[in-house]
Amino acid sequence: MEKPFWQTKSLAQMNREEWESLCDGCGRCCLHKLEYAGEGRVEYTNIACRLLDIGSCRCMDYDNRRAFVPDCRSLTPETVRTTAWLPPSCAYRLLDEGRDLAWWHPLVSGDPDTVHEAGISVRGRVVTEEAAGDEQDHVVKWPLEEF
């Protein structure tokens, strides 16, 4: 039996379709983060990016997101290594660290809903930017918890 592409290719070797399929749709990277310059410390909030559909946990305008959210970071094999705020469940981070995808990842399970069923996604745990108010009141730890 042939191994899946994520077990045989490095992140840099993947084509665009393979790369994009690594996103599990958890939405954790689309949460507002408080980054403390000089400290190397990052805190997550439960405030969703304005483009995150909080039901599906997918970007509502992925292809044009940077036009609406200029500080939205695009991941590349290089930025995966240097982006401190990627959650421990992130497929890009896992593969870069030499680990495999979890059972709930859609590429493993064959079902895009397992990320939600396993409690990994932000579904039901976030507020919109409009409803949030002060970001400091919305700091949460769960996006950085191990799974």
Question: Descriptors for this entry?
Answer:
globular; alpha+beta; two-stranded antiparallel sheet; 26% helix; 147 residues; 8 helices
What would you note in describing this structure?
This protein is α+β, with helices and mostly antiparallel strands and 147 residues long. The protein has 8 helices and 5 strands. The protein has helices at 5-8, 16-21, 65-68, 77-82, 91-96, 106-109, 114-117, 129-132; strands at 31-36, 41-48, 52-53, 58-59, 139-140. A hairpin with a 4-residue loop joins strand 1 (31-36) and strand 2. 22% of the residues are buried. The mean pLDDT is 94.
Topology diagram in text:
Blueprint: H1 5-8, H2 16-21, E1 31-36, E2 41-48, E3 52-53, E4 58-59, H3 65-68, H4 77-82, H5 91-96, H6 106-109, H7 114-117, H8 129-132, E5 139-140
Antiparallel strand pairs: 1-2, 2-5, 3-4
Brief overview:
By secondary structure, the protein is α+β, with helices and mostly antiparallel strands. The protein is built from eight helices and five strands, in the order H-H-E-E-E-E-H-H-H-H-H-H-E. It has a three-stranded antiparallel β-sheet with strand order 1-2-5, with no helix packed on it.
